Amino acid sequence: MDLRYATEHVILRESAERFLAERYDYRTVQRIAASETGWDREVWGEFAKLGWLGLPFAPEDGGNGGGTVELAILMEAFGKHLVIEPYLATVVLGGGLIAALGSTAERQAMLPAVMEGECQLAFAHEERDVPTRAQRTNDGYSLRGGKKVVLGGPSADTLLVSARLGDHGLGIFVVPRKTHGLTVRSYRMVDGRRAADVDLNDAMVPTSALLGGNEDAGGAVEAVLQRAIAALSADAVGAIGAIVKATVDYAKTRVQFGQPIANFQALQHRMVRIKIKEEEARAAALFATLSLDGPAAIRARATSGAKAKIGRCARSVHQEAIQLHGAIGTTDELALGGYAKRLLAYELLFGSTREHLRRYGAMIADPKVAGTGLLMA
Amino acid sequence: MDLRYATEHVILRESAERFLAERYDYRTVQRIAASETGWDREVWGEFAKLGWLGLPFAPEDGGNGGGTVELAILMEAFGKHLVIEPYLATVVLGGGLIAALGSTAERQAMLPAVMEGECQLAFAHEERDVPTRAQRTNDGYSLRGGKKVVLGGPSADTLLVSARLGDHGLGIFVVPRKTHGLTVRSYRMVDGRRAADVDLNDAMVPTSALLGGNEDAGGAVEAVLQRAIAALSADAVGAIGAIVKATVDYAKTRVQFGQPIANFQALQHRMVRIKIKEEEARAAALFATLSLDGPAAIRARATSGAKAKIGRCARSVHQEAIQLHGAIGTTDELALGGYAKRLLAYELLFGSTREHLRRYGAMIADPKVAGTGLLMA
Amino acid sequence: MDLLLSSEDLAFRDEVRRFLADSIPPGMSRAIDLTTAFIVDPDVLIDFHRALHRKGWSVPHWPVEHGGTGWSPVQRYIFDLECGHAGAATYNASGSHFVGPVIIHYGTQEQKDKYLPRIRSGDDYWAQGYSEPGSGSDLASLKTRAVADGDHYVVNGQKIWTTNAHRANRMFALVRTATTGKRQDGITFVLFDMDMPGITVRPIMGNGGDHEFNEVFFNDVRVPISNRIGEENKGWEVAKFLLEFERGGRVLAGQVRAQFAKLVQLMIARGHDDSDLRTRLAEIGTDLDAMEMIDISVLSTLQTGGNPGPISSLLKLRWSEIRQSIAELAMDAIGDEALRWFPERPLYETLQLPPEDEEMAAMVPRYLNSRAFTIMGGTSEIQTNILAKSLVGL
Amino acid sequence: MDLLLSSEDLAFRDEVRRFLADSIPPGMSRAIDLTTAFIVDPDVLIDFHRALHRKGWSVPHWPVEHGGTGWSPVQRYIFDLECGHAGAATYNASGSHFVGPVIIHYGTQEQKDKYLPRIRSGDDYWAQGYSEPGSGSDLASLKTRAVADGDHYVVNGQKIWTTNAHRANRMFALVRTATTGKRQDGITFVLFDMDMPGITVRPIMGNGGDHEFNEVFFNDVRVPISNRIGEENKGWEVAKFLLEFERGGRVLAGQVRAQFAKLVQLMIARGHDDSDLRTRLAEIGTDLDAMEMIDISVLSTLQTGGNPGPISSLLKLRWSEIRQSIAELAMDAIGDEALRWFPERPLYETLQLPPEDEEMAAMVPRYLNSRAFTIMGGTSEIQTNILAKSLVGL
């Protein structure tokens, strides 16, 4: 057990912080969010130059070989600065699937373009209705189904689509944007990011589209989603930390009745409460991150637990932060509004707070699990 | 619509207050609670003399013809002074059933002894397991079943036992304490009152034991239970009011750091919150009381709503009151401890807070009901 | 004691229902349902307001001699509840509920003649200029300066959070006319026309995507001294009167109950079997019943000529929280539909969705805007401070 | 960075499990399960404590030269968790965790020789005399007076909330030795034998039915000056050292996790399908995971020689709340069984119920007693005041 950040962690945090503080203020967020595409090509290019787009990929694939902790550090900075570029969609989800399931040839064919910022990906997974199915055809597969909340779908050059194969199989299909029968219906999310509903209306793909030729991708999908939840949780912690700091700073400078409102004990106690929630959220996110290299049961517990706990913290922190700010907290003049919306999106992505609380509850409804501490054998 | 208390209401409140303030302090509560029987014969005799034992009965039955408001006023005083004598069991439940279902002869046979304090009653209704059944015999009925949470069961001279008759019927049976096959297993409740588990092991009663000869007593039982909930809610409001007052008074006199702790804004805001909960609880109890003369749907909504709302208020008020008192609040030196236990009992009697919240939720899951205000046609 | 409606009350209710059925223009309810801001646009409401005016019901709570209806508090409660259910809203509370009663109480005959008819008819639309950048909860610290110059005041300064200043043609405001003595004793209540030279309005965009709030700048604005309400330096008293009238005299139960019924409808339409959401719904219901009972107690007190006392801050505090909890549950009830954001306003003009999906678009903006309920019009913290003294006796 | 246990850690865990399996006397776990008070009776624990002592594990956190084990923080965490699961508890924290470390740090050689062995062996049982009727959160206002008279202090005054004073043979206390200057600078830390003439103990009955707390009266008690720890008038520093050691140095996660596992067991045994209760259970689980992660961060900091900082007040605040929520849910989980009250104590001697019903009897008293978690040892309000400064920087 060792929870010390290594030097390279500190360097990554500082360089991310420096870049974003300089280049990505709240006006930039608002500008990009209001733009047609919802992402900035120049910023994305910088991400590539900084090596962030290759952060989690293995050195043999041309990546930087960063681990889960590095990813969490970067995501926390993204949350703090409200970065809305589709990093999670392209690098963590799409890239993560290719890295986990792809053959050497597939990885070499696709990952370099991702890392260079030339190709964006999206993972079309959540079903709108009945499960999407892949039907074998003479020379490939025909995909049929409807997906929802496809993060980064609008800007994706290539979609990775999960589909049932036969009775028990699950495959990930590489579907180029232009594929006939594929429709991407884009929308803007509450926090300015973009997502899409995706329709697959007998979309035909070749046999080679089945990633890694793998017909049993369920475990890999679960692991990638857990990584995404841990990463998004770090993002949420970045937002929570920023919102708490902004609130405390505001309370120290806002003068009413002849003194900073931070002097009022009733408000002090409430600021302590949101600060504690920040600490708890940070701890839950760290557990999720560190669980990712552990056994499946711990990963599931830690990531669902993080989603449930951080979602709850996020709700009450954003509400208290707005209330403690007063009227200015209800406007779009401060980044506070952006954080509130970012956290609302967090609560809903990859399963809601309540849904994960239910899953977590089912997992710990066993005294042996409930009695097991976080340190792992 | 008129919510003014009439002169007789004010007089009743004042006389109850005067009597109990003089005769029923917290040491008395503790003494009676620790006694063998859990009630004081002398106090009970005084209740009779004050006319309280006959309060809700019709003048033609020898009662005082008091309405639901009078009963609520008396019960609120009982809650405020933690009266543990089995008034609810004998007068509201037992007496209420006899008044509602009994023939003139039955009322005249039983109610005078109740009003004179010579006879205590209990209503054995909640099933421990499968429903209690009454089997017709040659000369009466054989009762078989197990009842739980029979309030006042230990001191009851006569039990009123609900039992299924045939496929759809429900009857109330008058069962003297000495009846063969009747076992009363007494226990002390958390707040010092007494209750019992009751076993009916082929207890034989004559045909005349079926109250009013009524084989369809379900509606009357429901109405009596609603009256009991409204009365007990008034009792809880008495306890909540007392606990809030005690907390505020204590905060004004407890000095730490050179000033009364009531000066600290963080504590002031919390005291405001429990005071508001008192007001809301009072309002919910009043709605329940005033609903009792209304249609069945309003009665059900108001009484379940009161139980759910007041139960929730009670929990947080007793917790906050203890916390605001500090260490002394965790002892049995102050009445505070008694109030906390009284309110815990309130939360569980006649269906828990959660159970009533569920029932209430089912009732208002209809926009027409949800949109209907409290004023009644 | 009872909660019974009299047969006159019931007859009145039927009359209100008939009137509403006849008078609500097509499209108004949809526009209100898709309004995410606090205040419904005047365009949406003006026709209905004029119908009310024709019926003589546009300012029911005013004294009869000024156009009020003379209804009992119970009748006003019935009217509010029925309006809520019918999907109607108040045209311009700043006019009819705020400045109107102030003019009736403190105004000169000229002022009454000039302003009251146009409030009744809806010809005027009023905004309120109280808060300033440095003066929110601590309103008495306000600095916007009015200096007498002949028969005018020359006003310089700035107001903020001025709801619908960009739609109003008139505005009442508190300005500072003295800088010595107790802060409260140097404040004056003045009426402005929004087209007076030197007044500029800058929008403040809300986090919910709506433009309701504004900054209003005063740059050497010359306003006639005859636009003053009450005496110079007595504006604080006028403002307090306004607040008391507003808080004690208005019953929110009807409006909130109508919102609650809509929430129930939404949850049924979504087929919700999520027990946590159902628990929250039921809890809100019991909160609402309890608060309505408190409201009715206030009605009863008013009905019999009494003074409801410190309860007004309690009502503000709790109703705002209950309204927030309704908005919050509505957002949570739509699940991941809440991820979609429609930036254009007003939604009833810009949305291009099937009718059954439309209401989803309003939920998140409405939730975000609802956070202001506990801030605007006196924060919950200020209400709590007041209640600590007045209700708890600390 | 990782959360992995090393192979040494795992071997250690196995050793602890073996030891516990061999050493826990029959009946001890039942007695602890049926203990409703904070502190388990010494009679219940003494045999196990002696077994720990024989193994050399009775004071693991002390320096090795005084009988400590030299375990790493992770090993202590493992030990606490396994003890919790095995149903073991600390014999006398006032001795081993409070006064012991104080004597080690501040005591003379004579004091160390006299007291430390008897804490290790369990021959002494210590009580803590801090609070006074007028000095709770504001401890520095304490008034119990010690006046030097030759080589003794003569002590007069009163302590309150003295846990298990009626079972202890020794007591450490803060007394006032100077009444001028800063209040904190007139306080001295003194050790008493409970049988010294002039000490009387009066019980305070808890609302949960247990007798744990006492008042302790000092009437011309003569205590040798050699019983003083540290310098005269430096007792406040000693008390602060004690608090820091206690708060930063003890990991509650193990104990609370064991309680949580028991709660899960109870809910399964009751066959609960109540979704509200299950939601609360899951929420407590996520709270517990987060707090354990914070605890582990503290461990990691300690393991690498760092100072955990202001986090100690956060731990006190939140662990006490989580323990309350466990006790509260356990009470709610037994439904109307919670109506039954068993006034006799200890339950493990007085109860006459079938084994499967026994634990119900403990739930309500334990809930009531749990309310003291957020009061004793520094109220949540005081912790929050501290955190406002130290963690939030206000």
Structure description:
The complex is a heterotetramer, with 2 copies of chain A (377 residues) and 2 copies of chain C (394 residues). With 377 residues, chain A is of the alpha+beta class. Helix content of chain A is 53%, strand content 16%. Chain A has helices spanning 7-23, 26-34, 41-49, 68-81, 87-101, 104-115, 218-253, 265-291, 296-325, 335-348, 353-364, 367-370, and strands at 121-124, 133-137, 140-151, 158-165, 169-176, 182-188, 194-206, 255-256, 259-260. In chain A, the strands form 2 sheets. In chain A, strands 1, 2, 3, 4, 5, 6 and 7 form a 7-stranded mixed beta sheet that branches. In chain C, 49% of the residues lie in helices and 14% in strands. The mean pLDDT of chain C is 94. Chains in contact: A-B, A-C, A-D, B-C, B-D, C-D. At the A-D interface, α7, α8, α9, α11 and α12 of A face α4, α8, α9, α10 and α13 of D.
Q: Number of DSSP strands of chain C? A: 8
Helix content, binned percent of chain C: 40-55%
Structural class determined from secondary elements of chain A = alpha+beta
Major beta-sheet overview of chain A: 7 strands, mixed
Q: Could you tell me the mean pLDDT of chain C? A: 94
- The quaternary structure here is heterotetramer
Strand content of chain A: 15-25%
Strand order of the largest sheet of chain C: 1-4-5-8
Average of the residue pLDDT scores of chain A: 97
Radius of gyration of chain A: 21 Å
- Total E-strand runs of chain A: 9
Radius of gyration of chain C: 21 Å
Poorly predicted spans of chain C: none
CA-based shape of chain C: globular
Unreliable spans of chain A? none
- Helicity of chain A, as a percent range: 40-55%
> Terminal Cα separation of chain C, in Å?
32 Å
Give the largest interface pair and sizes: A-D, 54 and 59 residues
